[in-house]
Amino acid sequence: MQARPGIPTLVVSGFLGSGKTTLVRCLLEESIARGEKLAVVTNEFGALGIDRALLGAAGVRSVELAGGCVCCELSDELVDTLEALRRELAPDRIVIETSGLALPYQTQLSLWRPPVSEWVGDDMAVVLVNAEQLAEGRDLDETFAQQVSAADLLLLNQIDRVPADALPQLEARLREIEPEAPIVRARHARVDPALLRPPEVRPCRHGAPDRAHAHESFETAELAIEPGIAPDALVARLRALGALRAKGFVATSDGARLVQGVGRRIELSPAAPPEPRLAGRVVVVLRRASRAASPA
Ligand SMILES: [Zn+2]
Prior knowledge:
12 strands
């Protein structure tokens, strides 16, 4: 059983005009700034809008899969491409930008096929929704509903193009389709990067919480989980917190488990007992407002 955390992989979906390419550009800039190796697979001509200098940066590799959709016709090509990227680049992170009509869940299925399933880590589907399109009721067909309902995280984008008082109603409409995935509001696809990657569980901490990537709306916290906790109780505790992301190692009553959570989807997978310094610690990303009764 693989206990290694693996390479985190993000699937970026949403209709044409929802801001996928802008988000991918932000992720590229972030990885370059962090000195990470990033592999990008795109399935949309819009990706050509990304600055060639970014795509040509050291540590960045990009592949465009054209002539079909990565979630269906090109799923075999997607698996082959991901495996080739792992061999050639050994990326720290992978981003897959689907076409506007692709289904994110079906795209994620390719990540769970060998050989990719042997090395893929935390996988997450972020679905961007153009707030203006939603407000105008344009193209809200079955594909739209399927994309929204498959999201681990919904990014309600371009909120500056609709009146602020319309936002709760737009979120309620998304909630009807997808009751559980966290909804995050964004302009120009700008979102706290911590939401789109697994939280880091670091061996050392020096008292003060890590606020290096803190954002006005989100924060990282660390939970101490007692050994011997039942897996169900652990999942219930993380859900009750409303954590947007979770990652850590816990010695449950069923044995050592790697905890990976995206919104309500919390997965416990068998893991080798971690270093003692990492055991029993789960790092979570929380919405500040969702924390216990903040004093107004
Ligand atoms: Zn498809």
